[in-house]
Amino acid sequence: MKFLIAGLGSIGRRHLRNLRALGQEDILLYRTHQATLPDAELGDLPTFTELSLALAEKPDGVIIANPTALHMEVAIAAARAGAALLIEKPVSDSLAGLGELQSVLAQSGKPAMVGFHFRFHPVLNQVKTLLESGQLGKPLSARAHWGEYLPGWHPWEDYRRSYAARADLGGGVVNTLSHPLDYLHWLLGEVEGVSAWTGKLSELKLDVEDHADILLRFAAGEVASVHLDYYQRPPSHTLEITCEDGSICWDNATGSSQVFHAQTGATNQQLPPEGFERNQMFLDEMATFVRLCQGETLPHCTLADGIRAQELVLAIKQSASQGGCMVRLA
């Protein structure tokens, strides 16, 4: 199969390495040469600076890993060229163009997958199975916390140049760290209302928000709080879910969760497989995308899921601009 990678920053390079690890060698690159990483690992792969020329090579799958604000330009053109899509999260920095993309994909019949890679975390999948089993009763509330110091993400580059730090590229903590919005939707169901407060608290040189505190109200009655920030050291990414008959506490640092069963008083651990490391999620995600390109039908984070996450992002920003007022989602 033939794959095109659009964008050669850190996530584009990761996708390249994982495609190769999966035995895929017919790989094209589309880039603007703005990446700050060395090019040695790119070797002599065919490289294009014009998207139309890259798509003329008829790739089976296109991996969209350029800055968030530029996703739709590539996605719509690639869909019109008949390719399946893997769009890095978030799908965009607005809803503009997403309806057109859905229409083009409906005509081509090709799948689109969104890169919320925590859906491939083995323990979060165990958490989902446990919640669906009803062993802990109905979920009542949840709390997600993700704080991480932005200048430490990519030590090889000036953080101020990164898409995460720039409004013109679709950055900001709500867009960039939107994974909890997706996995809470995945675990607990539809969100019907959002209240949020965002702003800039740190001395980081940004033109975007560096923190967000969010309240989500789910259609089934559950409530969840989400804290995101660009300034916490050391980093912390955790999820707590309280149910009628117990609770779950997951920690990304260890990959494991603690499950408390109220009826027995017992606590047990859910552990990732021995040797599990972060790239396994991306590798499993890519393996799923390859199989989707081959025509298989598999569970995945759909374009509709990605659009819902973006609707949540926009509702959060609307609420914050209105002093934290509740914004209802259709």
Brief synopsis:
With 330 residues, this protein is an alpha/beta fold.
Measured by DSSP, the beta-strand proportion falls in 25-35%
Structural class: alpha/beta
Order of helices and strands: EHEEHEHEHEHEHHEEEEEEEHHE
The side-by-side strand order for the widest beta sheet comes to 14-13-12-11-7-10-9-8-15
The CATH fourth-level homologous superfamily of the largest domain? Dihydrodipicolinate Reductase, domain 2
- The name of the CATH topology of the largest domain is Dihydrodipicolinate Reductase, domain 2
N- and C-termini, Cα separation: 39 Å
Describe the structure.
30% of the residues lie in helices and 25% in strands. By secondary structure, the protein is an alpha/beta fold. The protein folds into two domains: 2-117 and 285-299, NAD(P)-binding Rossmann-like Domain (Rossmann fold); 119-273 and 308-328, Dihydrodipicolinate Reductase, domain 2. The strands form two sheets. A nine-stranded mixed sheet has the order 14-13-12-11-7-10-9-8-15. Helix 1 crosses helix 8 (279-293) and helix 3 packs parallel to helix 4. The protein is globular, with a radius of gyration of 20 Å. The chain starts with a strand and ends with a strand. 42% of the residues are buried.
Defining key terms:
330 residues, nine-stranded mixed beta sheet, alpha/beta, six-stranded parallel beta sheet, 2 domains, 9 helices, 15 strands, Rossmann fold
Task: Please outline the helices and strands.
Elements lengths: L1 E5 L3 H12 L4 E5 L16 E2 L2 H5 L5 E4 L6 H10 L3 E5 L9 H11 L3 E4 L6 H12 L5 E9 L25 H4 L2 H10 L2 E9 L11 E8 L4 E7 L6 E8 L2 E6 L5 E5 L4 E5 L8 H15 L9 H19 L5 E2 L2
Parallel strand pairs: 1-2, 1-4, 2-3, 4-5, 5-6, 7-10
Antiparallel strand pairs: 7-11, 8-9, 8-15, 9-10, 11-12, 12-13, 13-14
Helix pairs in contact: 1-8, 3-4
